[in-house]
Amino acid sequence: MSETKKALVLGATGGIGGAAATALLRHGWQVTALARACRQSGQPGDPLANVKWVQGDAMNAVDVRAAAEGVQAIVHAANPPGYGNWARTVLPMIDNSIAAAKAFDARLVLPGTIYNFGPDAFPHLIETAPQHPTTEKGRIRVELERRMETASHEGTRALIVRFGDFFGPVPGNNWFSQGLVTPGKRLRSVTYPGRKGVGHAWAYLPDAGETIARLLDRADGLEPFARFHFGGLWDADGTAMPQAIAEALDRPAIKVWAMPWVMLGLAGLLQETPREIYKMRYLWRETIRLNNSKLVAFLGEEPQTLLPEAVSATLKALNVE
């Protein structure tokens, strides 16, 4: 880049937000991160050591606007913790980011999910696939993206990059580090949420962050409302990920158990988190693959780490033995 660009990342303490911030720093951007509790910068080996941390709340429009002053991009990776409280927080947060992007003529970037889609769009998802979600979370994500598209018609540029299930060298709100393995523990078995024979798309966080950075480096070539699907690491039948975990730990005979969905459903009668997780089980019962042909045509390639390397690095960083 001929001049230093500035970006604001909301949710930099999380998986995809942290990965995007790390990649942007590597690409020469100056990165500001808004967080309720600021991290200490400058720790040896910290990939976010050069981030400027600003204390604030994505639910507070004044905080978001103040942190966004002078930036060319706002990465909206803020999510409610866990699976709860979506109805009261997701849309107000995106409204605040849209307002800040409009105020400073910044491009608003959203890491998208497959929650937006229902069975009529499966198994191969393209950017223009119909969005007929079957869950409340999906309907909220559809409305979130609709507001971004409306803002783009009013002059606020937007970019949505849609990913499969995240995993990577940072513990986070994802299936890998909260379901398949437990950070800091010796792994005695793998609990896999999907059915054998059903394909599943995984997104390695460093690759996802790199993709966002490359797209922003070429933002002048993007549409006002740009959407891309990230293909990621494809597990064609639900066996590749458990096998990669077993091989990385050099325990080929490790047991693989099915997710006890019935138990989650019963627990959900009393608790919000298992109830919300249970509602998303349909995403593991059908093959869902994101078509990345548009992304590859624009960038020339999709950043992609091989599955064994990605899983090995993730397990090591999560201190899983």
Explain how this protein is built.
With 321 residues, this protein is α/β, with parallel strands linked by helices. It folds into two domains: 6-169 and 203-232 and 287-304, 3-Layer(aba) Sandwich (Rossmann fold); 175-197 and 236-285, no CATH class. Helix content is 38%, strand content 18%. It contains twelve helices and 14 strands. The protein has helices at 15-26, 61-68, 86-104, 136-153, 175-180, 205-217, 240-248, 261-267, 272-279, 282-285, 293-299, 307-317, and strands spanning 6-10, 30-35, 52-55, 73-76, 107-112, 124-125, 158-162, 165-167, 189-192, 200-204, 225-229, 233-235, 255-258, 289-290. The strands form four sheets. Strands 3-2-1-4-5-7-11 form a seven-stranded parallel β-sheet, with helices on both faces. Strands 8-10-12 form a three-stranded mixed β-sheet. Strands 6-14 form a two-stranded parallel sheet. The chain is globular, with a radius of gyration of 19 Å. The model has no long low-confidence stretch (mean pLDDT 93). Pfam families: Epimerase (PF01370). This is NAD-dependent epimerase/dehydratase domain-containing protein. It comes from Sphingobium xenophagum. One of its GO terms (molecular function) is aldehyde dehydrogenase (NAD+) activity.
